[in-house]
Automatic annotation (TrEMBL):
Its EC number is 2.4.1.-. GO terms for molecular function: galactoside 2-alpha-L-fucosyltransferase activity. It is found in: Golgi apparatus, Golgi stack membrane. GO terms for cellular component: Golgi cisterna membrane. The lineage of its organism: Eukaryota, Viridiplantae, Streptophyta, Embryophyta, Tracheophyta. Belongs to the glycosyltransferase 37 family. This is Fucosyltransferase. It holds the Pfam family XG_FTase. It comes from the Eukaryota. One of its GO terms (biological process) is xyloglucan biosynthetic process. Signal peptide: none annotated. Keywords: Cell wall biogenesis/degradation, Glycoprotein, Glycosyltransferase, Golgi apparatus, Membrane, Transferase, Transmembrane, Transmembrane helix. It comes from Dovyalis caffra. It is a single-pass type II membrane protein.
Length: 480
């Protein structure tokens, strides 16, 4: 591998479409250089404008990153509680909520927001998350220092926390007319249950106000990028950065989230052992949100109905004793199943082991782990989740579950338009069982509904042609 990369015929820059800055230490993040050897090159080139802006962002992050002179100065304002004007450095501090998929989507959204407003992004990750990824920006860190003064307030930071921007607007502690000096910091609550005051974040007038606040702490578990496209003052810049709107998470996600060496070991060993030799790789992501109301057989029937109907997988002969003739098509398909449970994998593996396929194709079925329960704060659990998201993104064909951010991350990183399994209700298999996604972008599950100008609820899926309602979440928004 290193010979290929060091041969000098292709520079790292060319290999990676120039998304990454030169000057990284290769050994500290092998995936950044080796990913190209495992996955198909992206069919989507980032715009030159995006590349240039990323380099500008990286210098800003270098200038303002943790413990730089400017960082220390801006921190003084936070400690004294007084906003004494600009130091040239303003920040978005991201604090997580929910599982890995939700977190990756909201970090990418917070990064894009920071990017648009000339702020530096710092993330509050525990070791169990920090160890999954390489540092994305050269010669600095994106990790929020342990001694950051507001850290001890973060656990109180929920929707009802009095110091959120929404609550301060509601109680008229701050108002939009800007009579009082802007505070040194504000909490922005942008999660699944925002109210109409939190939603004012998405209004231009409020963005003008926020611009003067050096520290913005964001708590989110949402992919709120589609609504940034609906903020008039961001729209033009976003269109220049992403002439193809469908590629936002594809580029931002690939830029920010490269597997750490430990994660890369898990990914590449599994890939080489089970997936690399296949003629085609099919990922099936089975996310069951409520096992009581969604029985196994209902979901299994749905998966088979979707994959067989759309010819994603071959049918099997109804006989056990036939042997596929050697003259048949003997191509090898590898099916990667990811799920918290093992029963879906067992069923599909058993089906293709005990019976021959009609087409003669040979089907191998694999599942890296079955963790049974979601866990928080456990490094190996998160490492497996990240590995599986990444392996799914290396598929040629992807089937995902409705509502799952785990699947969204995989589809966008892999530039795939997945077949989405509709969410079963009342224990019955939906008809049709699945639908192919319009675009590879993730869905913003809980977008704002309160129009800034109209002052009444509006349909945000009807404002511009490239922001539509999602296939799996009727009121959600996605870029197409
Ligand atoms: P979502 O809840 O489906 O939107 O996805 P999230 O990633 O936000 O949260 C689900 C969490 O459950 C993951 O982060 C994992 O911790 C765990 N999980 C769910 N499905 C799987 C799976 O297929 N494999 C593994 N290893 N973990 C999973």
């Amino acid at each position: 591998i290193s010979e290929v990369l060091d041969s000098g015929n292709v520079s790292y820059q060319q290999l990676l479409n120039e998304l990454f800055a030169p000057g990284f230490d290769k050994g500290s993040c092998l995936s950044r250089y080796e990913a190209i050897l495992y996955r198909k090159p992206s069919p989507h080139k980032p715009s030159l404008y995006l590349i240039a802006k990323l380099r500008t962002y990286e210098s800003l992050h270098n200038h303002c990153g943790p413990y730089t002179e400017s960082y220390n100065k801006t921190l003084e304002q936070l400690k004294s509680g007084r906003n004494i004007g600009t130091t040239g450095c303003n920040y978005v501090v991201y604090t997580p909520l929910s599982g890995l998929g939700n977190m990756m989507l909201s970090v990418a959204s917070a990064f894009l927001y920071a990017f648009l407003t000339n702020r530096v992004l710092l993330v509050e990750f525990g070791r169990e998350i920090a160890d999954l990824f390489c540092e994305p920006f050269p010669n600095t860190t994106w990790l929020l220092p342990m001694d950051f003064p507001l850290r001890n307030q973060f656990e109180n930071f929920r929707q009802e926390y009095p110091r959120t921007y929404g609550n301060m607007l509601k109680k008229r502690i701050i108002n939009i007319s800007m009579k009082s000096p802007p505070p040194a910091f504000l909490y922005l609550y942008l999660a699944y249950n925002i109210d109409r005051y939190d939603e004012l974040f998405y209004c231009d007038q409020n963005q003008d106000q926020l611009q003067k606040v050096p520290w913005l702490v964001i708590k989110s578990n949402q992919y709120f990028v589609p609504s940034l496209f609906l903020v008039p003052s961001f729209h033009q810049e976003l269109s220049k950065l992403f002439p193809d709107q469908e590629t936002v998470f594809h580029h931002v996600g690939r830029y920010l989230f490269q597997p750490s060496n430990e994660a890369w070991g898990l990914i590449t060993r599994f890939y080489q052992a089970y997936l690399s030799k296949a003629d085609e790789r099919i990922g099936i992501q089975v996310r069951v949100f409520d096992t009581k109301t969604t029985p196994f057989q209902t979901v299994m029937d749905q998966i088979l109905s979707c994959t067989l109907k759309d010819k994603l997988l071959p049918e099997v002969l109804d006989v056990h004793n036939s042997v596929a003739s050697l003259s048949n098509n003997q191509s090898l398909k590898a099916v990667l199943v990811t799920s918290l449970y093992s029963e879906y994998y067992e069923y599909i593996k058993g089906m293709y082991w005990t019976r021959p396929t009609v087409s003669g194709e040979v089907i191998g079925v694999f599942q890296p782990s079955h963790e049974e329960h979601e866990l928080y704060g456990n490094k190996m659990h998160s490492m497996k989740a990240w590995t599986e998201i990444y392996l799914l993104s290396m598929s040629d064909v992807l089937i995902t579950s409705s509502w799952s951010t785990f699947g969204y991350v995989a589809q966008s990183l892999g530039s795939l338009k997945p077949w989405i399994l509709y969410r079963p209700f009342n224990g019955t298999t939906p008809d049709p069982p699945c639908v192919q996604a319009m675009s590879m972008e993730p869905c913003f599950h809980f977008p704002p509904r309160y129009g800034c100008k109209a002052k009444v609820n509006i349909d945000e899926g009807a404002i511009v042609p490239h922001v539509k309602h999602c296939e799996d979440v009727g009121w959600g928004l996605k870029l197409v």
